[in-house]
């Protein structure tokens, strides 16, 4: 059977095609103004990548903040359920998965079958989400990728006192004016965000092994800062932004009841 | 030549003094300097009466901003900072006013200043500053009885308003009036995070919403946020609004609609409340100090 998982993120829509439990295709598409159109494009892109037709698809599962607009999906699951399912498929030893997206972050504790035990979530505030680092990189006029690299070159620990993205931006501007080393500023930003995400994760009593997923897991500066904060190693899958969509497809495959 | 980016957030900075007062005849000259995170104000009192003031943007250094705003208030008066008998510093940068005799918290100063500006019927002061939001309960003399504040987040603050003005390319002084130019109130954008509100506003613009409607959605969100803090402490009439946002009718009108009554109005500048309160405290402190010195003699 073929199942497709669609993850409607704040910034990108991700789709993964699974045949008999194995991933055979995927696609990512920027979330546009019409989210239905974005979902369709990601869906069609993933089918093309897997080289299967729409008529071959047994089940379509939607997840993410905008899952309701995916009217062609038969099932819906929470992001937490999909995250947990997706990560145990990739790393069976994982008991805690931290998912950091563009506008939300969550930490989920799970059992060996990929069932959610407990979770914590931040969805009301951009501090501790990808938007935080993006705003700071913009203030420094560098690409996010370069900003992440810069961070690794610093060994200093400069505190950023503000939690709020808007206030932190003023702090970063002050650091720029004070001619603080750019690498040190980049590390300060990643450390601040890691402290925020780390504190949220500790609310659910982090258990090993720990995995980091979501688009922000591609940010090596953040990964390093979070490792330091948690004093633990982190498993990062090669395509961290697709884990949720993969989990969605797997849940659909298993015939789980929709949330 | 590089074109300068237009700064829509920039609000009106000014200085003023009363040419009818001769400070050289004065018995007591005091000053309050309020160094906020976004704006700084100085108020000079001559025998308790306002003589001069200035209101400007805070620079990168608090001590420098304090000196600058005080000197600007004194511009053209012939008075120097050294001629002032007693100076009280307040605000976020209060401990860094180099020429201050003392620092007093902005909560106390705002309550005292609000009663001076709006009269002694004030029981609740809503201070909407650059980077924080405070609700203060006070008595008829401006003494603080209780307060609540949000200083962790830009939602509901002047800084949030500046971000929106910049995004929409609307001069900050026009945000309020233009936000009221809608036939019907649109649903609000996020009231928990300015960054989310900003991305939502961008989406609405892309959808073709007119600027006024987006402004209305943002002002409504901000009003909801401010109202929640007011409700948490409980509003006792009369209500006085201080800080820069007090000048924004888009917020004040919406808040009054939600409250079901009007806030007090004034011809004076509500942004001066902190500095004015500080200058009044300075007068009392100077008199006390002088009395003690006399006793010692």
What does this structure look like?
The complex is a heterodimer of chains A (259) and B (297). With 259 residues, chain A is of the alpha/beta class. In chain A, 53% of the residues are buried. The mean pLDDT of chain A is 93. In chain A, 40% of the residues lie in helices and 22% in strands. Chain A is globular, with a radius of gyration of 18 Å. Chain A has helices at 35-50, 79-90, 130-139, 144-152, 165-177, 182-202, 220-230, 243-253, and strands at 2-8, 12-19, 22-30, 57-64, 75-76, 96-100, 105-110, 116-122, 210-213. Chain A contains 8 helices and 9 strands. A 5-stranded mixed β-sheet of chain A has the order 3-2-1-4-5. Chain A has a 4-stranded mixed β-sheet with strand order 8-7-6-9. Chain B has 297 residues and is α/β, with parallel strands linked by helices. Chain B folds into 2 domains: 14-112 and 272-296, Nucleotidyltransferase, domain 5 (2-Layer Sandwich), CATH 3.30.420; 120-263, ATPase, nucleotide binding domain (Nucleotidyltransferase, domain 5, 2-Layer Sandwich). In chain B, 39% of the residues lie in helices and 19% in strands. Chain B is built from 8 helices and 10 strands. Chain B has helices spanning 62-74, 106-118, 158-168, 172-179, 194-206, 211-233, 249-259, 273-296; strands spanning 14-17, 29-35, 39-46, 49-57, 86-90, 102-103, 124-128, 133-138, 144-150, 239-242. In chain B, 52% of the residues are buried. The mean pLDDT of chain B is 93. The chains are: A alpha/beta (259), B alpha/beta (297). Chain A binds chain B through residues 33, 103, 124-126, 131, 135, 162-167, 170, 174, 177, and chain B through 37, 60, 131, 152-154, 159-160, 163, 192-196, 199, 203, 206-207.
